[in-house]
Amino acid sequence: MRYSPFFVVSVFALLCGPLTGFAATPASDKTGHDGGVEWRQVQEWKTGHDGGVEWRQVQEWKTEGQPLDVAHSLDGKLVYILNNQNQVLVYSGDGKLLGKVAVDEGVDAIDISPYGEALYLTNKKTGTFSTLQMDFIHNNIDISGAPTKGPANAPVTIILFTDFQCPYCIRLEPVLNEVIAKNKDNVKLVFKHFPLPMHPMAEPAHRAAWAAGQQGKFWEFHDRLFRSPQLNNQVIDAIAKDLNLDMQRFKTDMESPAAKAQIAKDISDGEKAQVSGTPTLFINGRIPQQRTPEFFQRMIDEELGKKSGK
After folding, report:
1. Is the pTM of the predicted complex or chain greater than 0.85?
2. 117-154 CB burial, b ≥16 within 10 A, e <16
């Protein structure tokens, strides 16, 4: 989805139907800056109507250079702006500059794939079309207190946001196990709870795994949950008994504020890193474009090459 550029970037929402994908009107004026970007959100937005269409401005921020073209991701989380300085500026949906992509002279139009993982360029000077694969590095995900598997000082860290009731997460488990076994000296796996609201037993299962972890049995409980054909309270209790957990302590820990707080923190950490579904992985901060052993291995080898200076 694309819009014509302005010297000051503005987004307008049509009010002839429900508003989707846009930020709500802020309650008060907000201003700020980040690097070379200044932004402001104002309460008194421009509004108007014509015939059966009503509109109001819901967002605005300053950009570097003169904007020539703009594209944004389907979920509204990324905005790409081509300027007259041979750059594509990449912003978050709230106007934070994430980075700049240098482009060749003559690039006159851009577009992106639905979620911004690819940037498309046309160049009127050379008569060419180019595709750039975009990687967004997330190196600030908090992993304190998270269960881990592998060497603490491993050169490659895989952070996994997952859901015990998610069928795609279940399918990913053997793939990850294969990759970790092959790279046991070089990879550390970090587990982050991310139960989805659509899965009614996910949140209790994650609290149960956390409670098992308080007795040193997180990974054993984790494996049994993923191997279970279905999840319910009886299955959770049976796993705990089979692992010889102190059942009274297990029940208390599972219902504790600490269990709920840890899961809420992991969900918040995921949302800050733009996680919106499961499974989502970060390999040294990068999200894989494919979930195959071969693609994971390629990324791991790339990261090991960076560490060795190759």
Report:
1. no
2. eebebbbeeeeeeeeeebebebeebeeeebbbbbeeeb
